[in-house]
Inverse folding.
């Protein structure tokens, strides 16, 4: 059974900023990004421990065709995945917790 997926406020902001960027700079990529993002979130919900731990108890799911990573934690007892950030792969992920 898939875990529930919860987005933090900051993850929602990250997603909105990414969509705003693609809508402004590369409209043809917006739908492709959304399809890949949704598929990645679905994968995480179905396989919450399949991705490596990036730091502390935070895991990282790489989007293969876009330069973003999804950072999330797993709440096993609640059967939840909490999406903390959607972060450009060139940015330092340790700044997520800073």
């Amino acid at each position: 059974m898939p875990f529930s997926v919860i987005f933090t406020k900051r993850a929602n902001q990250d997603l909105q900023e990414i969509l705003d960027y693609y809508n402004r700079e590369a409209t043809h990529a917006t739908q492709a990004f959304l399809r890949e993002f949704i598929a990645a979130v679905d994968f995480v919900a179905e396989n919450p421990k399949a991705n490596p731990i990036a730091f502390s108890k935070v895991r990282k799911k790489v989007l293969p065709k876009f330069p973003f990573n999804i950072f999330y934690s797993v709440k096993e007892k609640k059967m939840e995945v909490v999406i903390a950030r959607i972060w450009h792969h060139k940015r330092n992920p340790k700044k997520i917790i800073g």
Observations:
- The chain is about 40% helix and 30% strand.
- The first strand starts at residue 4 and ends at 7.
- The domain at 4-96 is CATH 3.30.2310.20 (YaeB-like fold).
- The helical segments are 9-25, 27-46.
